[in-house]
Amino acid sequence: MTRGAFAIEVKNLYKRYGDFDAVRGIDFEVLPGQVFGLLGPNGAGKTTTVEILEGYRHRTGGDVEVLGFDPGERPRELRARTGIVLQSTGLYSHIRVREALEHFATMYPHPRDVGEVIELTGLQGKERSTTRTLSGGQLRRLDLALALVGDPELIFLDEPTTGFDPAARRGAWDTIRSLKELGKTVLLTTHYLDEAQELADRVAIIKGRSHSVAARADQRGTCPGRASRGIDGDAAHARGHLFGADGRRRAGREPAG
Q1: Structural domain span for residue 176
Q2: Suppose 44 and one of 40, 49, 205, 231 were both cysteines; which one would form an S-S bond, judging by CB atoms 3.0 to 4.6 Å apart?
Q3: Are β-strands 35-39 and 202-206 bridged in parallel, bridged antiparallel, or unpaired?
Q4: pLDDT at 114 over 80
Q5: Taking Cα atoms as reference points, which of 72, 44, 43 lies closest to residue 57?
């Protein structure tokens, strides 16, 4: 593909803290209109990678383009065209759902209708509720609504369903599927193989502390673009590194990131 054909393009990305490599030489691309899943255990570098793409964290080395821009320069146009759902957020506890969305909408040049966003994210009936009265799942829906109200082209979802019960997860999955139907590009980080299988057109797996990446197209034959480097394209091998033969994630806690 020609330069600029990707919504996200990452080449040999590094992030170092002193002698520690938080991200070590990864490559991947995301096509416009694609749901791209970034998988890996805690400490593998998923959040660090996403924060570099969002412009919140500076990279040590490598080349990164997001919608044709270098996110490290924090261009205003790029920020206007992206929506972000962080792992955790905080809002004034007495603000009402509709008030929060209307306030955030004023920050974007061409926001979506607030009522449409409320319906899309399943917050009907909660418009006048204050954030302190919302359940954890409802707060996460509000996080997603705030990311969507600016009508972004590209949406970053950093572990959006962590802590959800099964019913809430299925509802969130339906919302993410609807984003693709709207033509949005989504980069999704997750711990859950079933979530990636349900939602992603293509996945990259960061192999723990080795920070290698394997990418695959899904069974629907989505174009994988240039092969990601790290494991000779063997996503099954990477899956075995992260998960046991029964499909469960291997035991062991690592630092967040």
Answers
A1: 8-81+153-241
A2: 40
A3: parallel
A4: yes
A5: 72
CATH label of the domain that carries residue 28? 3.40.50.300
Q: Which of 49, 86, 67 is nearest to 9 (CA)?
A: 67
Q: Range with the lowest mean pLDDT among 12-26, 101-115, 190-204, 234-248? A: 234-248
Integer Cα distance of 107 and 136 in angstroms: 26
Q: What is the structure's pLDDT at 69? A: 96
CB burial string 137-172: b at 16+ within 10 A, e below: bbbbbbbbbbbbbbbbbbbbbbbbbeebeeebbebb
Q: Quick one: DSSP state of residue 250?
A: P
> Can you point out the beta strands (E) in the chain?
8-17, 20-30, 35-39, 61-66, 82-85, 154-158, 185-190, 202-206, 213-217
Residue 1: inside a domain? no
Given a contact cutoff of 8 angstroms between Cβ atoms, the answer to whether 131 and 92 are in contact is yes
pLDDT for the residue numbered 244: 35
Residues 6+ apart with CB under 8 A from 138: 123, 126, 129
Q: What is the DSSP string of 67-134?
A: TTB-GGG--HHHHHTEEEE-SS----TT-BHHHHHHHHHTTSSSPPPHHHHHHHTT-TT-TT-BGGGS
Q: Is residue 253 part of a domain?
A: no
> Does any domain span residue 93?
no
**pTM, two decimal places:** 0.78
CA–CA separation, 227 and 17 (whole Å): 28
Structural domain count, the chain: 1
Q: Cβ neighbours of residue 246 under 8 Å, at least 6 residues apart? A: none
